[in-house]
Design brief:
The structure is a single chain. About 20% of the residues lie in helices and about 45% in strands. It is α+β, with helices and mostly antiparallel strands. The protein has one domain: Hypothetical protein (Archaeosine Trna-guanine Transglycosylase, Chain: A, domain 4), CATH 2.30.130. Strands 2-5-4-3-1-6 form a six-stranded mixed β-sheet. The longest helix has 10 residues.
Length: about 120
Amino acid sequence: MKALTIKNPWASLIINGYKEYEFRTWKTNYRGKILIHAGLGMESSYAKKVEDYALTYQKGAIIGEAVLDDCILVDENFNQELYLKNPLVYGNNHVGVYAWKLSNIKKYAEPIYVKGKLGLWNYEE
């Protein structure tokens, strides 16, 4: 199954339903189920900005899954639409990057500890 490694707090924001778009500089034609892997890295300064969400952070683990529905090149209009949706989560300028639209997001009760990789990678149970 395909997996995507994401730094925290972004991975936890996705898995807890606060973020439905993941941003990448590259596009993908893949559509379907992906595993959300929380990498070892943490953007501490941003984690402080979202501390009111009371997230718990797993590191180096698959923490849930989602369906990758679309890959959209962000323009000024879409960037503004995202900002208005949630300025705290989408407050950065994402013009010129790709927004990976995620749906059917499910958080796993128990993390699956596994080393992540760059890009979309295959996880075999």
